[in-house]
């Protein structure tokens, strides 16, 4: 059985963590702003935050997917993650209402988390299956 590289675990772990942070940000911050209007002035997020988050998410996701593909040769994680990245990109770069931004980024973050989770699963179980057959 081949031991997965620490780097691969780091890539997928960072990608999943970033997806969940984005999801929490997209769901919790608007809820807090609605429930606690007095805190709205203190909880504002800088306008370029979403572009910065996208700038972190895209390279980490692509690193994790390409490293995973080299090990398990499965394209399914990419078919889930790439539409998620498209949704995040649309939400971050296309000027729209806050509602539309949330409607694009929440499913995008979920797709990223699911796709990277699948990538991680395929790395752990796909590598073992291949070794057992060989």
From TrEMBL:
InterPro entries hit by this protein: Mercury-R_MerC
Pfam families reported for this sequence: MerC
Full protein name: MerC mercury resistance protein
Entry keyword Transmembrane: yes
Spans traversing the lipid bilayer: 20-43, 49-67, 79-97, 103-123
Keyword vocabulary terms for this entry: Membrane, Transmembrane, Transmembrane helix
Top-rank taxon: Bacteria
Keyword NAD among UniProt keywords: no
Taxonomic source organism: Sphingobium xenophagum
